[in-house]
Design goal:
The chain is 32% helix and 12% strand. By secondary structure, it is α/β, with parallel strands linked by helices. Strands 3-2-5-6 form a four-stranded parallel β-sheet, sandwiched between helices. A two-stranded antiparallel sheet has the order 1-4. Strand 5 (133-137), helix 6 and strand 6 (155-159) form a beta-alpha-beta unit.
Length: 197
């Protein structure tokens, strides 16, 4: 990654935001993990949380489909912002499998070491006694998490990726948001306010 930057390549997100998700949601506060693939690869989109974009940035197609599912599942209208910080502050860890990407090149930083780090994060969370909900969207995320989460006491909700290429094959209609809240209530915890402000 440093070599690419030295050669003038644009790398997203900026260095200051690579670990942003961990600053927003501490280990002990995690109730839900939403697993993504890699950061958005367009200028200004990635800011260190899976599927989220900074305030003022147009929501990418995957995020638009997430908002469609929110409306269908629990009646929340499409928000004015695609920034999911309000979820993170409630214990939703928005984690990507790789934490950086080269501009306009999806999955360009796969196999360069990030997976070792994020696998360790998932393993630490999976070993936690307090149960949580893992929302695993897309084949890559499922392959990453299956081995670690199989047979654990956590709830694992899987669906196709919310991208326009696959959302209509089962992501839309999966009802993960309401299911996750039902589990949190069953465990005696506060449900997530999925509205975005």
């Amino acid at each position: 990654m440093k070599e690419e930057r030295d050669q003038g390549e644009a790398i997203f997100p900026p260095d200051s935001d690579i670990f942003y998700a961990f600053g927003m949601t501490s280990f002990d506060e995690v109730n839900i993990v939403i697993m993504g693939q890699d950061p958005y690869h367009g200028p200004g989109q990635a800011h260190g949380m899976s599927f989220s974009v900074p305030d003022g940035v147009k929501s990418p197609p995957s995020l638009q489909n997430i908002f469609k599912e929110l409306k269908s599942d629990i009646g929340i209208s499409e928000p004015q912002t695609g920034c999911l910080t309000s979820w993170a502050k409630q214990g939703v860890l928005l984690l990507n499998a790789t934490l950086t990407v080269r501009a306009r090149t999806p999955k360009s930083h796969y196999g360069q070491g990030w997976e070792v780090f994020t696998d360790a994060v998932i393993e630490k969370l999976a070993a936690r006694e307090k149960p949580m909900v893992f929302m695993i969207w897309g084949k890559s995320a499922q392959e990453k998490c299956d081995r670690v989460l199989q047979g654990t006491h956590h709830v694992v909700l899987t669906a196709p990726h919310p991208s326009p290429f696959s959302a209509h094959t089962g992501f839309l209609g999966c009802r993960h948001f309401s299911q996750a809240n039902e589990w949190l209530k069953k465990w005696g915890r506060s449900p997530i306010d999925w509205s975005i402000s």
